[in-house]
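Let us practice reading a record.
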Amino acid sequence: MREEPKLRESDDIQGDVIAGFKKDRMTLLFLKFEDPARARTWVKRLASQISTTRQVATFNSAFRKARQATGGDDPKALKATWTNVSFTYEGLKVLIGGKDPLPSVRKGGTLEAFKEGSHKRSLGDTGDSSPENWLFGDGKGQTVHAVITVASDTADGLQDALTAQREAAAQAKIVIVFQQNGATLPGTRRGKEHFGFKDGVSEPGVIGFDEPDPERPEYVKDHPGTRLIPPGEFVVGHDRVGGIPYDEMPEWADNGSFQVVRRLAQDVPGWWAQVAAQLKVLRKAKVVPDEATAEWLAARLVGRWRSGTPVAKCPHADTPDNALASQDNDFGYRNDPEGFTTPLFSHLRKTNPRDGLQEKPGAGPFPEKPVMDRRRIIRRGAPYGAPFDPASDGPGGPDHPRGLVFVCYQSDLVEQFEFIQKSWINNVDFPPNRPMKPGPDPMVGPTGKINLESPDATTELSFHQFVTTEGSVYAFVPSLTTLRLLGDGRLTDKLPETVRPTDAFLPIPDRRRDNGKSWYWAYGTGGDGPVCRTISIADGDEHKDVVERPDRPLATWPCYIGVSKVDAILPVPDEQRLNGRSRYWLFHTVEGRQVYRLISIADGAESGLDPEAAGSVDRPDRPISAWASFNGIEQVDAFLPVPDMQRQNGKSHYWLFHSSLGQQVYRLISIADGSAHTDVIERGDRSLSLWQSLAGVSRVDEFLAVPDMQRINGLSLFWVFHQQKYRIICIADGHGHNDQVAVEDRSITLWKSLTG
């Protein structure tokens, strides 16, 4: 049995890249993140909605077979709606907590281009096409962090998906900067762009995805002339064409692709008017046949007739009734080196010279493999706006917005898209070293002179630019693996060494809410044993955290002598900042058994000249069995103060988390004010499953109160640390102490103060 190409089975590559959505309706949402934490939660929820290569390829194959069975009609029973997502450099940076996702890039390489963004890349976007006139992607007011692509077979399917995406964005405080709709043109214009020419005929095949022709293995089966290109030209981490010094890509880029999105406005009547005007120039010069029409000249500007029939094969007239001719890709320019049939400046030759590119006239042509193959891109765009109708006073009128949503995928922005745009399309001297420069692409290129060659003469024509850039974005389409990591705020599953915040935090007593930030000692294990570093957390929505003082060995602090690991710390509730000192119960393990000691910390301990001498042991280690409320407990894991039950009627309540029979449970205890600090069990052990906010958590390592979010409108927020992740939970005042997740799990690496 024939083996299916392996890439068709990928559930890691997003579906539009090599399989292609290929829907009649498509919308792109350009998004800006306002709240990084909520944006990461949005990414986590979005991941399950992303269409994969396997899903899209399976559907497209079934759809194609159904069309063949019905003689070419679309099967009404087969319908689907697909969604993909991409991120700009700035969007990735926001999601991973402001860190640089590309700290080191090669000058002139694709990673530098991606980092800069298309608005800085000198793509010929000047005048009306200048970035300051763009609707999105200008790098200023229209900052774009992500692009959602939704495509559907039906209007209802598209609208339902867009409504869901809009609601999800609103919940995550994500701003929709711009919405770009696209759709297949109706009737006889189906499959064509607004100038009237069939589009998408010349797309490449992909090795490992498309089936090769048994007779010509370099080409796609049943698609004569469609070359098979190595998948690494479009998907990072796969085999590529040799000969170019490619950037070394980070591991997180594997199975991803760089995406270019451009809104290209088309002045249809203006373009056709200049075609007619330049035809008069040719007729006056007597260098065209008497029967030459505007259609004849336009076909040479494009390289195909309206139907898609290549001029190279049918130079004299279109063949609109020949379906095979309209899909013909099996042609080249080797026998037309001077461009007498298909002009050198034609859009088709400018964007893919095939087998006809020479270094200079008379030289042998460059081989398609590898020279041309390494410049290929995969295009997935669609027209937008109503078709031009000169008689319409509505959507089809001359002033109605219309154009092309240009979308392409490649693994190298510089050597593929940018090379085609700058070195081929816009370059008046391409093909190179001609006595008369061919000029820019007269279909989509800038204003300039083009030279039409014939055996007897060269005629100069003037063409203005009638395709205007109205928006542009460089984005990266991550693999599903990387997308899930981004939901955790990271790009790799390799965690850096950290001071484990799961050990314990001690709020520095005289530095709480001090000038807009609160200070803590964070305990963990370093290379030489237990350490402590000083961190601070700022008030405000982002709660920015920084390292105020690097790691110090606990052994240098008198109050920590004999402590190999801090298990938990509990402030003595009625002995905080009395006579300049604050007391804490410190729990640690000695020879496999947990004990506790009473320590005190002086005000000024962090800012003083000798902070190591500021702490003292007020009572030495005792077994935790001395606590009446710890009956049956062997190991204390964490304490969570009941927010509205601190220092109430002479006692304070805590939820105490500990492990029993291999599972973590919790109980409610109280500690009385006074020298004895009498403690009792208020409610016995219960399962963690009773906490709605701890769903999915098997073991809590530590709680930390969000300093400026305690008892605000009857609610208190806490960071919950567990297994190299953290979440934020909300606890309400009152008898039930209702709890819920405020921010879902994300990676601990988002805490800058706890990494490294």
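A brief commentary: The chain is about 15% helix and 30% strand.
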